[in-house]
Structure formats: C-alpha cells, structure tokens
Please model this.
Amino acid sequence: NSRNHRILHNTMYRSGKTLIDAGYHLCGPTLNGIEIAYNNLSWFSSLSNDLGTIYSASALDLTGTRIHYNRIHDPFEYSYFWNASWIYTDNGSLNVTVDHNLMYDFNVNKPVGFSISSQPGRGDERIFNNTLLVKWSRGRWRAVTCHRVWRSIR
Model:
C-alpha cells in the first residue's frame, strides 16, 4: 500500500512502455492520495502497446489520487493497429480524478484518449477540463475539450 506520494514538475520521455506505472504488483491494493501534476510526458510506447502514459491496473483503489496539469504528447507509434491511451486506469482501478491535462500530437486515425475500466458497481471517476489538441487534415489544429465526465457507479 502506498499513500500521499507526489510526482511533480518532471520531464519524462523515451520509454518502451508507460512513463508512470502503478499496479497491484508494485503498490499493493491501494494507492491513495497520489498527486501527478505539472509533468511533461512524451515519446512513450516505443516497444509495446495497450498501455497509457500514466497507467494503473489490477483493481487498484486510487481514492484521493489526482492527475492534473500534465502535458502529454508525441507518442511513439509502435503498432499500426493499436495506439496508447493517454491516461489509462485498467482492470478495475477506481476512484481517480483527472483534470486540466493537455494532450497533443497523436495520430487521429487510431483510438486514443482516456481509458477508464472500472468494475461494475464500484468507484467514482471524475474526468473534467482536459484538452486534446488534434491536427486534422490540411494542417489545421482543433481543440477538443472534455468539460465534464463524471462517472459514479454505485
């Protein structure tokens, strides 16, 4: 079990898989009060897919954990068919807040974004005020802002 850690003001890049990984095998069943903020994260997923830049797995309870004000960009395209999610809570991880992150320079032809995979009947996931900056055809940029996704499964 791990509590009240902070990952702040870092530049992380060139990773074969994720840049910030929290899983049951690393942390135990709870990872409470973690703050991941003000980081510049890029060039991830050079050797693998089905991952997130920031990733948690194995029914991890993330109560009080907040992921905010990060800049996530320029993933390495490992696979033509798969893409990395920006922030991925996998295999029943729950109770996370994700807000005010900026994500850009990714392939718009592949699914990408937030992947929340909670167990039915458990967890509160709060995702709001995140911006995806997408480069569409003819070189034009478009901002897609997620104003609020509040998923309460009880």
About this structure: Residues 43 and 68 are 19 Å apart (CA to CA). The radius of gyration is 15 Å. The helical segments are 24-27.
